[in-house]
Amino acid sequence: MKVYEKAPAKINLSLDVLYKRADGYHEVEMVMTMVDLADRLEMSELPRDTIIISSQAGYIPLDEKNLAFQAARLIKDRYQVKQGVYIHLDKKIPVAAGLAGGSSDAAAALRGLNRLWKLNIPTEELQRLGAELGSDVPFCVTGGTAVARGRGEKLEMIDNPPQCWVVLAKPPINVSTADVYGRFNAAKGQRRISSKDVIESIESQDFHRLCSSMGNMLEDVTVGAYPEVRQLKESMQRLGADGVMMSGSGPTVFGLVSKESKVARVYNGLRGFCKEVYVVRMLT
Ligand code: ATP
């Protein structure tokens, strides 16, 4: 038997870092949603007790470091599953980009293996398992739009944002989330981000208020280390995107665009100097 799952990319509409906790994690408040740029997982049953990962992407680990592998091993251990699985990852989401590609693959593996092995694990339990794999995994299990608190695993589902075009641009650098948090100094008094404004703008489906209230406290850290992120932001703004922000710990920058007529201008303008540019829709 075979099952397929889509693993969409997430973007942050806000990311506020509140403080560093005693356990080393940062307490955050962020609004996250998904876009229709997705990896695709094909999961086939293996009679042997093994987990095999393959992918056309040469630049991700295919061993126990792969988050889909870790998801499979976690489910196998917890539910004493004797069968093995062969997982093929068709990667479309750029890696180490701030788009939670690995987390979404892990979440898709949890959902898919739950079906493949007919385990009937409730969604909340899949999310608890996901939290053991990474802070963004619980959100990726359900997708939608959520306010995430704690280290990202405490979720409050909210309405989806108003539909619009999303232009994603990734400069040719890979950024480690741990490294960005390591450089972040919560005491430095960066501009606080108001997730409340973002949430209210979504409740009232006010696109322009959403664009002006988005903010990401990690942006200064990544921009400080990689000036190309600032350049991309400025270019997107100049080309007419309505709201522009870096996603997660970066380096991907996204622009929200309400009018189809403007999307081609933003895309073509960016393509002049950035190789990885995508035009997608919010997943609503
Ligand atoms: P986040 O925003 O959750 O920090 P990200 O988009 O910045 O995620 P990922 O694409 O998830 O970053 O990759 C982070 C690291 O995880 C990479 O260095 C990669 O080698 C490793 N990794 C493990 N499994 C996967 C996977 N299935 N897909 C992509 N990267 C993976």
From TrEMBL:
User: Which Pfam families has this protein been placed in?
Assistant: GHMP_kinases_C, GHMP_kinases_N
Ranges for the GHMP kinase C-terminal domain? 199-274
Q: Name one GO biological process term.
A: terpenoid biosynthetic process
* Swiss-Prot/TrEMBL keywords: ATP-binding, Isoprene biosynthesis, Kinase, Nucleotide-binding, Transferase
Q: Which InterPro entries match?
A: GHMP_kinase_C_dom, GHMP_kinase_C_sf, GHMP_kinase_N_dom, IspE, Ribosomal_Su5_D2-typ_SF, Ribsml_uS5_D2-typ_fold_subgr
Residue limits of the GHMP kinase N-terminal domain? 66-144
Q: Where does ATP bind?
A: 94-104
Q: What is its EC number?
A: 2.7.1.148
Q: Which pathway does it serve?
A: Isoprenoid biosynthesis; isopentenyl diphosphate biosynthesis via DXP pathway; isopentenyl diphosphate from 1-deoxy-D-xylulose 5-phosphate: step 3/6
Q: Where is the active site?
A: 10, 136
The reply to whether Kinase figures as a keyword in the UniProt entry is: yes
Q: Which transformation does this protein catalyse, written as a reaction?
A: 4-CDP-2-C-methyl-D-erythritol + ATP = 4-CDP-2-C-methyl-D-erythritol 2-phosphate + ADP + H(+)
The entry lists its GO molecular-function terms as: 4-(cytidine 5'-diphospho)-2-C-methyl-D-erythritol kinase activity; ATP binding
The similarity annotation says: Belongs to the GHMP kinase family. IspE subfamily.
NCBIfam families to which the protein is assigned, alphabetical: ispE, PRK14608.1
Entry function: Catalyzes the phosphorylation of the position 2 hydroxy group of 4-diphosphocytidyl-2C-methyl-D-erythritol.
The molecule here is called: 4-diphosphocytidyl-2-C-methyl-D-erythritol kinase
Q: Supply the source organism for this entry.
A: Paenibacillus swuensis
What are the leading ranks of the lineage?
Bacteria, Bacillati, Bacillota, Bacilli, Bacillales
Gene that specifies this protein: ipk
